[in-house]
Write the C-alpha cells for this entry.
Amino acid sequence: MTTQEALFNYCLRLADNHLILGHRLSELSSKGPLLEEDIACTNISLDLIGQANALLQYASSVENKGRNEDDLAFLRHERHFYNSLLSEQPNHDFAFTMVKQFLIDAFNFYLFDELKKSKDLTISALATKGHKEITYHLRHSSTWIDRLGLGTDESNKRTQNAINELWRFTDDMFVMDEADKILISEAIAIDLNTIKPKWHNTVNAAFEKANLKIPEKVWMQYGSKQGKHTEHLGFLLAEMQHLHRAYPGVKW
Amino acid sequence: MSDNQGILWEVFVQTKPGLPHKHCGSVHGHDKEMALQNARDLYTRRNEGTNLWIIPASEIVASSPEDIGSFFDPANDKVYRHPTFYKIADGITHM
C-alpha cells in the first residue's frame, strides 16, 4: 500500500463516519421529539454532512481518478464504506440516538483535536475547523446524557438500555490497520490507542454522573475498516443513494 | 411531538461586543442549558451574534396595554423634558 492509497483510505473513513452519522441524524428532521430539538439535530446533521463533503473532496483529489465527492458518496457500494459500525445503527428512541451521538462525539472530539497536529496540511485545516463544531456536538449530546440519565426512571432505563445495546460497537472505532501504520509513521494520522483512554474516561465520567453504567463483559463487534458492516448500512445507503442513482448527475 | 415542550424563554442576542443585547424571540427548553443551546441553534447560526442571554419568560415584568395612557402619555406635552433647547457642540454625533 502506497502512502497515497493509505491517505485516500484514511480520508474515506473520516468522511464516511461523518456522512453516515449525519445521514442517520437527518432522519429526525421534522420528526424530532420537540420543535427546538428537531432544529438542533438537523443543524448537527448538517455540520456532519458538511465536514464529510470537505473530506470527500480531499479524498477525491488524493485519489485523482476523476471521481468527485458526489461519486464517492453516492456511487460506492456498502463494502466500500468504512464508517464505524456504531455510526450506522438505527435511531430507535431518542435515548438511543443521543447515546450513539455522545459516544461518537466524544471519539471525534479527541480524534480531531489530535488531527489538528497532522503533517498533512489539508487534514490539519479540516480538523481545526471541524473541531469547533464537534465541541458543540459533544456539549449537546453530553447534556442529554445527563438529562436522560437523571430524568425519570423511564428515561434512565431507556438510556441504560441504549448503552447496553450499543457498547459492543465501540471497540470497532479504535481498530487500526496498515493504512494507519503508514500514515502514523509520517505523522499524518494519529495512533488511536492514544485517544482511547481519554475517550473512555470522558464517557465513564459522564455515565457515572448521570447514574448510568458501562456494561461488563460485552462481546465486541468489528469489521468496518474492512467494509464489513451490520445489516443496517445497506438500507441506509439504499435511501441515501437512491436519488443520485435514479437520476445520475442530477442538480437542483 | 410531545405535549410538553418545556417552559418559554426569551432570547437576547448581542451582535458585537459592547453593544446592548437585543430581544430577538423566544424558545422552549426544560432547563437553562437546553434553552441556551436551543437559542443558539435558532438565532445565532448565521453570524447574528457574539453573546446570548436567555431569561425565563415568566420572570419578565411587563407593563400592560391598558397602562399606555397613564404610563406614556404624560411625556407628550412636557417639551422641557427633552433637551431640545440646548445648543450642541459640533462634533457630537449621538445625543
Summary: Chain A has nine helices and no strands. The first helix of chain A runs from residue 3 to 26.
